[in-house]
Amino acid sequence: MFVAWRDMLFAKGRFTLITSVVVLITLLVGFLTGLTGGLANENISAVQGLNADKIALANVAESTSEKDPTFSDSQITREQAKAWSQAEGVEESTAIGISQSRGETDGHSAALAVFGGTADSPSQDEEVVISQTVADDLKLGSGDTMTIAGEDFTVTDVISERSYAHTGVVYTTLTDWQELQQRMGDPDSYATAIAIKGDPADATSIDAEQGTVTANSLTALLSIDSFRSEVSSLLAMVAMLFAISGLVIGAFFTVWTIQRKADIAVLKALGASNGRLRADALGQALVILLLGVGLGIALTAGLGALAGAALPFVIAWYTTALPAVILVILGLVGAGSALRSITTADPLTALGSAR
Amino acid sequence: MLTLQDVTLTFPDGQSRHTAVNDVSLTAEPGTVTGITGASGSGKSSLLAVAATLITPDSGSVRIGDVETTDLSPSQTATLRRERIGIVFQQANLLPSLTALDQLLAVGELGPGSAPRGERRTRAAQLLDQVGLERAHRARPHELSGGQRQRVNIARAMMNDPEVMIVDEPTSALDHARGQEIIGLICSLTEALGTATLLVTHDLDFLPRFDQVFTMADGGLSPGTAAPPLR
Ligand SMILES: Nc1ncnc2c1ncn2[C@@H]1O[C@H](COP(=O)(O)OP(=O)(O)O)[C@@H](O)[C@H]1O
Ligand SMILES: [Mg+2]
């Protein structure tokens, strides 16, 4: 790194420029991932809160043009729920009702999701446990009363933030959920999904037999329509930014290396090994990347904390450290593409006047 | 000691090949300067490139001490150049980002097996003083005159205490008086450090200062100054 360090200090302008580009790309990636994480949480935290190992949905492939199952289309029957609860390797299986509705109190009204029959649900009918957003939106606390689809419920508890498809969540018993479905014009509903704990021995054949589709709980999140559409477009942007950062770093180092090819030839004539020259070039790239990405992530965290009040924004390892590591790796890959110019620099050109 | 025996080097030239060095034999003893003169394009730089292991000849033998260099891989010749050969380039070829002192220290960073940093620092400072750059240790190339750059170039070649020194037209970018100084410097360093020095020059005035003199013409080497240089 002897020459590499001094090059960086000497050509401050250039290296500041490329470091700034890395900072900005990192900021962009950090912001997008933070936002993606925030939007994702608003979509999925209630489903994650089920703490299931696997989730079974009804297979609607035959009846609709959609090929993947979705929470909004899924209808689980009593028979399907029973079959799953008796399946080998299943420790616990719970039929869960999920639907979207509105909640009202005197003077307030808000969209919400109703989750029936979960571990967070109240033990008695006509009671609800609500998530913080619902409490905030409807100005509710424990002991208050709220109305969903014309039916009154008593709030027994307020739990930390849970949401589903961008709305807060109200937990009811499965019976109450079914009754609400009936009021909303769907009298035959039994449940929407089955939350499974344990490791079913033969999920495939039960699925085939029962007309269900079982996925691990992470994959199942993709069956939430709004989550899939939002996250896939945002992640596509993030992926594009990753590619851009790799290409930008690669282009910078390719030009940089070609510009100093004469110097490289001199160093080789003096006896520098290819390995040492390559390590120096990668070291240089690593310094720029660590500096740029580090600064970018610090800025993301700072600005994200500020934006967090107005935007759904998540600051967690998977929105900071993970994209940072990916950016550094892709940047190094980009810089690696410039190494060829080092190998091909001919020390013979250092001799004579042809410089 | 540097020994070349029956060395021939050709370059591709259109459909055929151009013989740049034709069956050259030469021995350079430690502590002596071997001067080579000759017309432009006669193959002097090509001969130096072969002697400096920068290119492998088509045939013949090039030995540094008792190491036959024509059998070595590129990475082995790199090590050999690092450890046993000093090269003074025609253009000073200094790295723009480095101070004079760093130009010399960089030589120790090119590969494994160099002396401890403190030792190298002392040697680099001594060498710069020896070539008359006591006051320019911290100057970068753009802050140095042509003659001063050439002095750094020479000091750098001496940094790894080479057995063989290869010098290509060190005075071509300098006026005659500066040229005299540079040639004098190379001759005194050769004596002081006991290197076998192979030096190419256009300037016939310098020839009396060398221990032996050859003339190159059309790739062939002959003793003395038979052919007057063109240009
Ligand atoms: N890398 C090369 N590729 C092809 N031809 C070369 C190369 N280097 C030198 N030559 C040719 O070899 C001949 C000798 O060149 P050179 O050794 O540079 O001569 P000098 O140093 O005496 O001026 C010239 O005709 C030159 O064109
Ligand atoms: Mg020449």
TrEMBL record, chain A:
<comment type="similarity">
    <text>Belongs to the ABC-4 integral membrane protein family.</text>
</comment>
<feature type="domain" description="ABC3 transporter permease C-terminal">
    <location>
        <begin position="237"/>
        <end position="346"/>
    </location>
</feature>
<keyword id="KW-0472">Membrane</keyword>
<keyword id="KW-1133">Transmembrane helix</keyword>
<feature type="transmembrane region" description="Helical">
    <location>
        <begin position="234"/>
        <end position="258"/>
    </location>
</feature>
<dbReference type="InterPro" id="IPR025857">
    <property type="entry name" value="MacB_PCD"/>
</dbReference>
<keyword id="KW-1003">Cell membrane</keyword>
<feature type="transmembrane region" description="Helical">
    <location>
        <begin position="286"/>
        <end position="309"/>
    </location>
</feature>
<dbReference type="Pfam" id="PF02687">
    <property type="entry name" value="FtsX"/>
</dbReference>
<keyword id="KW-0812">Transmembrane</keyword>
<dbReference type="InterPro" id="IPR003838">
    <property type="entry name" value="ABC3_permease_C"/>
</dbReference>
<feature type="transmembrane region" description="Helical">
    <location>
        <begin position="315"/>
        <end position="335"/>
    </location>
</feature>
<dbReference type="InterPro" id="IPR051125">
    <property type="entry name" value="ABC-4/HrtB_transporter"/>
</dbReference>
<keyword id="KW-0813">Transport</keyword>
<dbReference type="Pfam" id="PF12704">
    <property type="entry name" value="MacB_PCD"/>
</dbReference>
<dbReference type="GO" id="GO:0005886">
    <property type="term" value="C:plasma membrane"/>
</dbReference>
<protein>
    <submittedName>
        <fullName>ABC transporter permease</fullName>
    </submittedName>
</protein>
<feature type="domain" description="MacB-like periplasmic core">
    <location>
        <begin position="18"/>
        <end position="202"/>
    </location>
</feature>
TrEMBL record, chain B:
<dbReference type="GO" id="GO:0005524">
    <property type="term" value="F:ATP binding"/>
</dbReference>
<dbReference type="InterPro" id="IPR015854">
    <property type="entry name" value="ABC_transpr_LolD-like"/>
</dbReference>
<dbReference type="GO" id="GO:0022857">
    <property type="term" value="F:transmembrane transporter activity"/>
</dbReference>
<protein>
    <submittedName>
        <fullName>ABC transporter ATP-binding protein</fullName>
    </submittedName>
</protein>
<dbReference type="InterPro" id="IPR027417">
    <property type="entry name" value="P-loop_NTPase"/>
</dbReference>
<keyword id="KW-0067">ATP-binding</keyword>
<dbReference type="InterPro" id="IPR003439">
    <property type="entry name" value="ABC_transporter-like_ATP-bd"/>
</dbReference>
<keyword id="KW-0547">Nucleotide-binding</keyword>
<feature type="domain" description="ABC transporter">
    <location>
        <begin position="2"/>
        <end position="230"/>
    </location>
</feature>
<dbReference type="InterPro" id="IPR017871">
    <property type="entry name" value="ABC_transporter-like_CS"/>
</dbReference>
<dbReference type="InterPro" id="IPR003593">
    <property type="entry name" value="AAA+_ATPase"/>
</dbReference>
<dbReference type="Pfam" id="PF00005">
    <property type="entry name" value="ABC_tran"/>
</dbReference>
<dbReference type="GO" id="GO:0016887">
    <property type="term" value="F:ATP hydrolysis activity"/>
</dbReference>
<keyword id="KW-0813">Transport</keyword>
<dbReference type="InterPro" id="IPR017911">
    <property type="entry name" value="MacB-like_ATP-bd"/>
</dbReference>
<dbReference type="GO" id="GO:0005886">
    <property type="term" value="C:plasma membrane"/>
</dbReference>
